[in-house]
Amino acid sequence: MILLLFGAPGSGKGTQSGLLVSRDGFVQISTGDLLRSAVTAGTSLGKDAKGFMDRGDLVPDRVVIGLVQELVREKIAHGFNRFIFDGFPRTLAQAHSLNEILNNLALQVDHAIFIDVDRAGLVKRLTGRRVCSSCSAVYHIENKPSAVVGLCDICGSNLVIRSDDREDVISSRLENYDATAHALKNYYGSFGKLVEVNGDKCVEEVYKSIVSSTGIVKG
Ligand code: AMP
Questions:
Q1: Are strands 138-140 and 129-132 parallel, antiparallel or unpaired?
Q2: What CA–CA distance (Å, rounded) separates 17 from 64?
């Protein structure tokens, strides 16, 4: 089964993907995570991507598509067949390329899930987010604080603010989302693949809506 998870920055895509991975046997393909790893590792791709990410702009399609193609092929070769794409595609060109990549592997998108959230709460969610500098676990200073302030519950490393969770960068990221979300909704809607869920509910409720509207059975 192939699921795409869409939503504005801070809508909970990463959290829901994590649940689908741990509970339902999906492999998560998060282009944001892939790009952040490349930046941290200092690869040439990471160096190219960093400026775009720091400004809250989209990284060029060819870079992101190449990353996704490589990872999907590798996972398929290892026998995985349940994927959740988190934060990809973000443009129609990426959507077309994803179709091509999947068609070549005799696969197709089953559902494109849009997590809709109230805009007012998003900035608060993003500015309060903290991530582990080592294992990337995600916290929130109010909604999901770590047991010891500033330290990860899982590995004890320092918690940091993502460089693109600054208020000025957040507004560009939200603008970028708005600029493409409508077209992507229409695109997947035209194939009858669109699923919309209310992301203002609690994490478990959102998860239940995703499971019931996509008919996921345990993998
Ligand atoms: P995310 O973690 O999904 O919010 O992504 C963080 C940043 O990575 C975005 O603001 C973009 O700069 C970049 N990025 C992630 N996914 C994509 C994508 N599919 N296309 C272009 N840029 C992306």
A1: antiparallel
A2: 19
| Low pLDDT (below 70) residues in the chain | 218-219
**Distance (Å, rounded) from C-alpha 38 to C-alpha 45?**
7
Ligand 1 is surrounded, with C-beta below 6 A, by 9, 31-32, 35, 52-53, 56-59, 64, 87-88, 90, 94, 164, 173
Q: What is the pLDDT of residue 209?
A: 96
Buried b (16+ CB within 10 A) or exposed e, 113-132: bbbbbeeeebbebbebbbbb
The pLDDT of residue 97 = 97
What DSSP character marks residue 89?
Answer: -
107-148 residue pLDDT tens: 999 999 999 999 888 888 899 999 999 998 999 999 899 999
Q: Is 125 a catalytic residue?
A: no
Ligand 1 pocket, mutate which of 28, 48, 53, 55 (most atoms under 8 A from CB): 53
The alpha carbon of 53 and the centre of ligand 1 are apart by a number of angstroms equal to 7
- 166 flagged as catalytic: no
Is 75 an annotated catalytic residue?
no
Q: Which of 4, 5, 58, when mutated, tests ligand 1's pocket best, judged by the most ligand atoms within 8 Å of its CB?
A: 58
- Residues whose CB is less than 8 angstroms from the CB of residue 183 and which lie 6 or more positions away in sequence, other chains included: 92
The per-residue pLDDT for range 77-95, each reduced to its tens digit, is 999 989 999 999 999 999 9
